[in-house]
């Protein structure tokens, strides 16, 4: 049997981080995923998919993602039910995120790195290294500059 879901979308609101009574982190968030077609009126359609992440991944999502952030989720669908306040059975469907990818840099970090690269160092020289570097980590290589891609979303581009 196979139960696997891969999603790419934008968060519709800030993630909600909570802890269970035993101290396990749980984060709930909703991804807006565009459909591959537009409505008859030419408007982009989207599905709003409830997601949940657990433990360290939940804390990372809450710390680094916010409303409008682009994220990729690899996980599985779970279903459940509970009795609502009115006594009727309520059925739920959500994606349990087993892996979450942050698909764009955190804007404040990108801005800070850009500002830092423009400030002179102690010898009065301009620092040209960004905060995104490769080649370090004990391999004896030279640090190489890596320009992370940026995405400037206009409010009209978002489906929410």
Name the quaternary structure.
Answer: single chain
Total number of beta strands: 8
Indicate the radius of gyration in whole angstroms: 20 Å
Please tally the helical runs, counting DSSP H or I stretches of 4 or more residues: 2
Helix content: 10-25%
- What general form does the structure show? globular
| Helix-strand string | EEEEHEEHEE
Question: What is the total domain count?
Answer: 2
| Proportion of beta-strand residues | 35-45%
> How would you sum up the major sheet?
5 strands, mixed, barrel
Class of the largest domain, according to the CATH hierarchy? Answer: Mainly Beta
What is the SS-derived class? mainly beta
Describe the structure.
The chain is mainly β and 160 residues long. It has 2 domains: 99 residues, Nucleic acid-binding proteins (OB fold (Dihydrolipoamide Acetyltransferase, E2P)), CATH 2.40.50; 57 residues, no CATH class. 14% of the residues lie in helices and 42% in strands. The strands form 2 sheets. It has a 5-stranded mixed beta barrel. A two-stranded antiparallel ribbon has the order 7-8. The longest helix is centred in the last third of the chain and has 12 residues. The chain is globular, with a radius of gyration of 20 Å. About 28% of the residues have low confidence.
């Amino acid at each position: 049997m196979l139960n696997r879901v891969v999603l790419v979308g934008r968060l519709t609101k800030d993630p909600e981080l909570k802890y269970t009574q035993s101290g396990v982190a749980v984060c709930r968030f909703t991804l807006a995923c565009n459909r591959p077609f537009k409505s008859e009126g030419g408007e982009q359609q989207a599905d709003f998919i409830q997601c949940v992440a657990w433990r360290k991944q939940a804390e990372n999502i809450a710390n680094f993602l916010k409303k409008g952030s682009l994220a990729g989720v690899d996980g599985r669908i779970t279903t459940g039910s509970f009795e609502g306040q009115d006594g009727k059975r309520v059925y739920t469907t959500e994606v349990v995120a087993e892996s979450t990818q942050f698909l764009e840099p955190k804007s404040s970090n990108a801005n800070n790195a850009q500002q830092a690269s423009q400030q002179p160092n102690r010898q009065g020289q301009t620092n040209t290294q960004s905060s995104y570097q490769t080649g370090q980590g004990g391999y004896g290589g030279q640090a190489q500059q890596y320009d992370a891609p940026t995405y400037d979303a206009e409010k009209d581009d978002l489906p929410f």
